[in-house]
């Protein structure tokens, strides 16, 4: 599992959270964001690519909690354009074993 240390969270005009991440080579396949309402989330992009989203901004956590989906926008390597964007289902759980004690 990789740590997504360099990311941003933007809230759209419709109240949808948008995770802005660096471009990943592997394509997403049925991506899911596992979220327990705390500081961290786990993004499963596909069977071989998992990202730990560390320390979600406090003001954004409520949007992840109340929405059933979010958007991931992957920036190109220069960071000045979107290389890929996709909708991600948010699976809410009581406890995320991948982020416990973080």
Description:
The chain has 102 residues and is mainly β. It has one domain. 9% of the residues lie in helices and 45% in strands. The protein contains one helix and eight strands; from the N terminus they run E-E-E-E-E-E-H-E-E. The protein has an eight-stranded mixed sheet with strand order 1-6-5-4-8-7-3-2, covered by helices on one side. A hairpin with a 6-residue loop joins strand 7 and strand 8. The longest helix has 9 residues. It is globular and about 35 Å long. The two termini are 14 Å apart. The model has no long low-confidence stretch (mean pLDDT 92).
Major beta sheet summary:
8 strands, mixed
The strands making up the biggest β-sheet line up spatially as 1-6-5-4-8-7-3-2
Q: What characteristic shape results from the CA principal axes?
A: globular
The strand count comes to 8
Strand content: over 45%
**Please, how many domains?**
1
Low-confidence stretches: none
Number of helices: 1
Query: Span between N and C termini?
Result: 14 Å
What value does the Rg take, in angstroms? Answer: 13 Å
Oligomerization status of the protein chains: single chain
- Overall SS class: mainly beta
Q: What is the arithmetic mean of pLDDT?
A: 92
- What order do the helices and strands follow? EEEEEEHEE
- Helicity level, as a percent range? under 10%
């Amino acid at each position: 599992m990789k740590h997504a240390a360099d990311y941003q969270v933007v809230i759209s005009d419709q109240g949808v959270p948008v995770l802005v991440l660096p471009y990943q080579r592997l394509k997403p396949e049925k991506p899911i964001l596992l979220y327990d309402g705390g500081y961290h989330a786990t993004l499963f992009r596909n069977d071989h690519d998992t990202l730990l989203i560390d320390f979600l901004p406090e003001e954004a956590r409520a949007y992840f909690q109340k929405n059933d989906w979010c958007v991931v926008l992957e920036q190109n390597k220069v960071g000045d354009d979107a290389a890929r964007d996709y909708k991600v289902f948010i699976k809410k759980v009581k406890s995320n074993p991948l982020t416990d004690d973080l």
